[in-house]
Description:
By secondary structure, the protein is α/β, with parallel strands linked by helices. The chain is 38% helix and 17% strand. It has a single domain, classed as 3-Layer(aba) Sandwich (Rossmann fold), CATH 3.40.50.720. The protein has helices at 23-34, 46-55, 72-86, 112-140, 176-195, 217-224, 239-246, and strands spanning 14-18, 38-43, 61-66, 89-94, 143-148, 166-167, 170-171, 201-208, 257-260. The chain is globular and about 50 Å long.
Amino acid sequence: MPNDLPNFLLSGKTIVITGGGGILGQRMTAALTGAGAAVAILEPEIEKGEAAAELAQGSGSACAFAADITDPSSVEAVQVAIESKLGPVYGLVNNAAVKTPNFFEPFETFPLSDWNEVMNVNLTGAMICSQAFGKSMVRNGGGAIVNTLSIYGVVAPDQRIYEGSMYEGRAINTPAVYTASKAGLWGLTKYLAAYWGDKSIRVNAISPGGVFSGQNEAFKSAYSDRVPMGRMAEQDEMSGAVVFLLSEAASFITGQNIIIDGGLSVW
């Protein structure tokens, strides 16, 4: 019966998203507000979050908060501020990631300082946020967490596609630290799904494939040739899965990873 269909909306729910001002984060924020959520955008520079909040439209709302997700005291403070302003947090999207100045260095010469910085944001930051907001969800009787992984946390990058590949005027690749951090976040996703399963807290992930954001034609063509659907993803094609996993439509789904890669990983 139509009236028995699960609820895909997030009306009345407070959702926190880290990295909500980024390429994917902006689209996720807009989709969440479109589904009726009150969205708290966490960015280290609040102006970036405020710009994303202005772009978000829908029956929900969005506002920005400055926070350093690698600092537990900063996250604890912003958790209190968010709940004071928006009410109890129901959902968390761990979406923040970082590219360091030496992000595209070859593995043999990749600096340890850059490795530690990427791990600190991509993986440790997600752990810190999950601690802070997860404790709140336990107190409030449940919630949902969605972690943004990557197809390269599931399969290894095909190094052949990077010959002649450029982005913003520089040669690109996918460094080992990115793969390692995203694979680690998948492990954390499964752990927390089991750990909080009896607390009515669901923990899932999405794994985006390559998203077009201005890469040169050489990369776009080489990458698309590896994808059964024959193209890269558009920037808003991850958002629907995030809304779904946070909604009551996914009420019995936990510990899962939705791979959104146009089929790349089937080959």
